Amino acid sequence: MTDTTPYDALIVGGGPAGLSAALNLGRSLLRVLVIDADRPRNAATLTSHGFLTRDGVPPHELRRLARAELAAYPGVEIRSRVRVLELSRDGDGFTAAIGRTAPTEVASAASVLLATGLRETLPDVPNLRGYYGMSLFSCAACDAWELRGRRLALIGETPDLADRARLIARWTDSLTVFTNGSDAVTAVQEAELAAAGVDVRRARIAELVGDRGRIEAVRLDGGSVVPVDGGFVRPEWHNDLSFLRGFAPAVDAAGHLVVDGEGRTDVAGLYAAGDTAVPGPQQLIVAAGAGARVAGAMVRDAAGVSFTH
């Protein structure tokens, strides 16, 4: 374990937000260290959508292209397949213990950007993972175009399920909501959805039926089978801040970090961008934009200036 010369910025997370921030910080002549555990939430997704000039690119390819671009900036270093095991305050800056399961490196930095993304818990449905990212997705804005006009399922157990159903119904006239035995949809909401042509099934899901990741039907307890051609899942998202030691930035009711309009948390020198910050999960292009915006704020703060343009 060795101490290193302090970095200007430590970025925790190597997704679109973190890599975009690293690019802009590197171009501003800051010395940057990116720590990437290489466990992105979209690892199951074959292609990503909605990213201008990169529509349809696999997420891993987008990350590869970003890293290749960052290689041109000598001030940017990337550590892969390691994590920040502990992050603590050190005077006006921060100290990070880095490694896989035990610390193998200690790095200090004047500022830190948290771009760790979120962890997700899928509904408790047998064999759901076998279809997730191939014919079942979590982001309507990202994947609904490819499923337009088909018989779709929406599986979830959260209070916002009816609102998500209204959104997804823009892309299909045949939508079935599966609450998997939960009371996620109220009786009033069910009546409203029925009036809009959306069916609600409250029974628990016995299994998903299909082949090689392509869903064909949802089988419910009791034996009824609902044919579908694809659909969406509403995961529950979690922000893991357990590696923070001795300080606790403010979070909202959903656990997302509360930031100002430029990504500053209520802890001096600590910033957040991407899914980890309010308002939560976003498209890749939105996360990348947030990383660039927060990087600008970090550069201005390091220079001690307050203008925004």
Give a brief description.
Helices cover 21% and strands 29% of the residues. The chain has six helices and 18 strands.
Q: Provide the low-confidence segments as ranges.
A: none
Give the overall shape, derived from the CA principal axes. Answer: elongated
**CATH superfamily heading of the largest domain:** FAD/NAD(P)-binding domain
Quaternary status = single chain
Major sheet size, sense and barrel closure: 8 strands, mixed
Could you tell me the number of beta strands?
18
| Run of helices and strands | EHEHEEEEEEHEHEHEEEEEEEEH
CATH topology of the largest domain: FAD/NAD(P)-binding domain
Question: What is the residue-averaged pLDDT?
Answer: 93
| Alpha-carbon Rg, integer | 21 Å
Q: What is the domain total for the residues?
A: 2
- How far apart lie the N and C ends? 41 Å
